[in-house]
Amino acid sequence: MPELTGLQFLKICGNRCKVVLTTAYPEYALEGYEHDVVDYLLKPIAFDRFLRAVQKAQALFPAPASAPLPAPTPAAPSIGSSLFVKSESKNKFLRLDYADILYVEALKNYVSIVTPGQRVVTYQTLKDLSEQLPQPPFLRVHKSYLVSLDKIRMVDGNTIYIADHTIPVGETYRDTLFRLVRE
């Protein structure tokens, strides 16, 4: 912006618009949040972080009741029904449909996302990924596992069965799981 900085623009427009602040200067973060920005992205911006900011902004603007969005068809899911994760090589992202995800397992700073046909390992924490996935159907059931409630075949005590996989249920998460299963 040739005549104004982004922060000067924020001061002028007040709360009339929602803004995702993007900058290469971390010192502007605090001032940005003082202007009630939706999110703050520090350059260079990772795609998954950008996608999270977009989803955050979209959540602030629900679709009007008079114009419902068409449901995605199974053959061509919308961006809102899928997730992009960084693949093994630089600038390569893999699209995973929420409906295909069986469960996610934490591997320290990585996660393993398991679908019927593949296991995708990506550099991301389970906490960050859980913030990107819709809840429900995704639920944390253990400090190291998220599951898709839609894919649970059986729950037996402290064990969840999804396809031919067994997932432990952590004591902390047990009550929430059983409440949702009963509903």
TrEMBL record:
Keywords, ordered alphabetically: DNA-binding
Domain of life: Bacteria
PROSITE patterns in UniProt: HTH_LYTTR (PS50930), RESPONSE_REGULATORY (PS50110)
SMART domains noted in UniProt: LytTR
Organism encoding this protein: Hymenobacter profundi
Upper taxonomic lineage: Bacteria, Pseudomonadati, Bacteroidota, Cytophagia, Cytophagales
Alphabetized InterPro entries for the sequence: LytR-like, LytTR_DNA-bd_dom, Sig_transdc_resp-reg_receiver
Annotated PANTHER family: STAGE 0 SPORULATION PROTEIN A HOMOLOG, TRANSCRIPTIONAL REGULATOR-RELATED
Domain HTH LytTR-type as annotated: residue spans: 85-156
Protein name: LytTR family DNA-binding domain-containing protein
Pfam families: LytTR (PF04397)
Domain Response regulatory: 1-58
Record-level Gene Ontology MF annotations: DNA binding
